[in-house]
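Long-time lurker. I teach an intro course on protein structure, and each term I like to show students one example going from raw sequence to a predicted 3D structure in token notation. This year I'd like something fresh instead of my usual example. Would anyone be willing to generate the tokens for the chain below so I can use it in lecture? Attribution to the forum is fine with me.
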Amino acid sequence: MNTQFASEQEKLLHDIGVLSFVVIELSLYLDTHPTDQNALKYFNHYNRLANQARQEYSANKIDIDGDIKLLEDYNAKIQGLGTSVNDLNQRQIIW
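-- Reply from a regular --
Happy to contribute to a lecture. Here you go:
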């Protein structure tokens, strides 16, 4: 699929959404498969990419605090199903 973006910022925001989805799904998978080392490697890799994309997006002086707030609200609703957004943003998770 070849998606056209109006700007580099729009593409970066799209990439952040995709990477965040992957990180959340891998986190949920690791909740039920804590010894899967390959999944942990994928999680750490995509979490790093997501953090890099967020930092690049923020470096362009675009406020993503509202997006982070939405993720935190979502995380509050699904307590116990995964790690917190802050955990995902600030460190690698070792299972």
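Some talking points for your students: The radius of gyration is 14 Å. Helices lie at 8-32, 37-59, 65-77, 85-90.
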